[in-house]
Design goal:
The chain has 133 residues and is mainly α. The protein has a single domain, classed as Arc Repressor Mutant, subunit A (Orthogonal Bundle). The chain contains 6 helices and 3 strands, in the order H-H-E-H-H-E-E-H-H. A 3-stranded antiparallel beta sheet has the order 1-3-2. A hairpin with a 5-residue loop joins strand 2 and strand 3. The chain is extended and about 65 Å long.
Length: 133
Amino acid sequence: MPAWNVMVATCPSRTSLARIANKWTAMIVIALSGGSLRFGELRQAVDGISGKVLADTLRDLERDGIVDRTAYDQMPPHVEYELSALGRTLREPLTALGQWAEKHIADVMSARDSYDNRLAPAALGSTLDADAG
């Protein structure tokens, strides 16, 4: 088996990292960590995602073996999505990432404010300089 290295531009593991690092993927995995969901339930659980983006992301995750799609032969059509065995290996790290984001958002927002406040006088000065010219 080859030694994969995500830091090498041509390594195929980069596509997996890009998929996993996608914000919608992380939220879908977190939502499916509680068990299977129908499309509408998943769209409700992942607030703000469009139907098209959800469908595209689910298709990509199914292709990568992270999500299993089960279609039931009934009227109206009934489709459920759940994490595959491979997808379940992502539950812990992506749930931890979501928890980190919730726990540290106040720190991140404070850091952003400090950064923006440090830049504000410089940005104002460059605007005044441009107006004077």
